Amino acid sequence: MTQVHLLDSIFTRLVAWSIAVCTAVVLILGTLVGAKFEQLSVDMQEAAVNADMATLLDAYRDGGQASLASRIDERLNFRTPSGNAPHYLLVAADGRRVAGDLTDWPGIDTGEMTAIPLPDGSYVHARAVDLPAGQRLLVARESAMDEMVLNEIGIAFVIGGLFVVLAVGVAGRITAGRLSKRVGRINAAFKNPDERRLERLDRDRNAQDEIGELTRHSSEALQRLNRLVDAHRDTLDQIAHEMRTPLMHLDARLLRAIRTAPDDAAAQGLVDARGDIRTVIATLESLLDISHSEANRGDPRGLEPVDLSAMIENIADLYAGSAEETGHRFEVDIAPGVTVRGEEMQLTRLVTNLLDNAFKYTQSGGTVCVELVAEGPVLTVADTGPGVPVEDRDRIFERFIRAKGNHGASGGSGLGLALARAIARRHGLVLRLKPTLRGACFEVRPESTVDAG
Predict the structure, then answer these.
(1) Which class does domain 10-151 fall in?
(2) Of 372, 366, 416, which Cα lies nearest the Cα of 387?
(3) pLDDT of the chain, 453 residues: tens digit per residue
(4) Domain residue spans of the chain
(5) d(CA 129, CA 138)
(6) CATH homologous superfamily, domain 304-449
(7) Which of 24, 133, 144, 278 stands 20 to 30 A from 351 (CA)?
């Protein structure tokens, strides 16, 4: 059975898409939360600076510069959390520092909220106002604590996101593995609908989901197919028996009539009639064999390991003697130890049909070659006969089709190659006519190697 690559599996793609969606959702939520918290932090810093500024202005209105300076010193002496400390600067009209922990005016305009750098390189949110007599007051507050909290939130989102993605991936992989096994049992049953695989399908029949429904329909269809194939096989066997038996009886009566024929002319007529009957029997058997092979195409039941090398060597030994008598050169090149699964009698008929075809259409003195290559394996039967006309190459494997010209002169029912192709298909093989400059060359190879070949 053809194995689906892991990356090509629809379940793997579903898991990948789920992980991608979860990752995107986590990133989007993290970005939105981070942006919202950052905006909230800015608003809180501005509110804190404005509240601090309002308190200091009240102190200035109540007691003037001295009261304001005293209040600033008190604020600076308060212990505040690290990363959230306030900073102040009160300057006189001439720019001289009156109070505060900042030494130089940062050069900002009054009335606006802005970020200014501290001597250590960090930034704080600050606002400045003008006081009477040219004095100016600056209030600032650090935001390092908020940035630290924001970073912690970001780390929490990363860790939580990784956990969610990992959980989705593990759960999806487990679920995908179970679904893949269920679909694999369906594919295995279609590939080989034997009782064991159909029993495996029955385990999933009661599942109340889409694959369970597919399993039920597949099991029912395969069971119907098996019944139809069995009925077709029984019908063919019955037809073969019902038609072959009376024909054989007629052949026996003709043989007795020949022995008691009154003259040679009557005997010859009976001999000709007996030959026609044998031709009808052979045609009938070929048609039944073709139908039988096509009905069992893809069904591994009845297939057993066959030593193809030994089988072809035995067939070649039989043809070697007749080749000497007919004046043909017979070349044999068989790789040892080649084994395939099949029905030995059918494979034997496949090879003999190809060899009969080659010897029939090759004149005395010509060459017939049979070659078996282990890689594949690939069987080739070639001859130096007249070949197959171009206009017949696409039709040569059809029933009752005989090539024109030299091929048609030898008679025959036109079923040999059709039967050979049906047997090849029954065994998962491809029989094809290869292009040659001289004669005909028939090749048999597994279906899976056709493109590579």
Answers:
(1) alpha beta
(2) 366
(3) 444 455 566 777 777 787 888 788 878 887 887 788 778 777 888 888 888 889 899 988 888 888 988 988 888 888 776 677 888 989 988 888 889 888 888 878 877 788 888 877 778 888 899 988 888 999 998 876 666 776 777 777 778 878 887 887 788 778 777 777 777 777 777 776 666 676 667 666 666 667 777 777 777 777 787 777 777 667 766 776 666 677 777 777 777 777 777 777 777 777 777 777 777 777 777 777 776 777 677 667 778 999 999 999 999 999 998 898 889 999 999 999 999 999 999 999 999 999 998 998 899 999 999 999 999 899 999 999 888 888 888 788 887 776 654 444 445 567 888 889 989 988 889 999 998 888 999 999 998 887 544
(4) 10-151, 230-295, 304-449
(5) 7
(6) Histidine kinase-like ATPase, C-terminal domain (3.30.565.10)
(7) 278
Amino acid, single-letter form, for residue 256:
R
Secondary structure string (H, E, C) spanning the chain: CCCCCHHHCHHHHHHHHHHHHHHHHHHHHHHHHHHHHHHHHHHHHHHHHHHHHHHHHHHHHHHHHHHHHHHHHHHHHCCCCCCCCEEEEEECCCCCEEEECCCCCCCCCCCCEEEEECCCCCEEEEEEEECHHHCEEEEEEECHHHHHHHHHHHHHHHHHHHHHHHHHHHHHHHHHHHHHHHHHHHHHHHHCCCHHHHHHHHHCCCCCCHHHHHHHHHHHHHHHHHHHHHHHHHHHHHHHHHHHHHHHHHHHHHHHHHHCCCCHHHHHHHHHHHHHHHHHHHHHHHHHHHHHHHHCCCCCCCCEEEEHHHHHHHHHHHHHHHHHHHCCEEEEEECCCCEEEECHHHHHHHHHHHHHHHHHCCCCCCEEEEEEECCCCEEEEEECCCCCCHHHCCCCCCCCCCCCCCCHHHCCCCCHHHHHHHHHHHCCEEEEEECCCCCEEEEEEEHHHCCCC
To the question of pTM greater than 0.85 for the whole model, the response is no
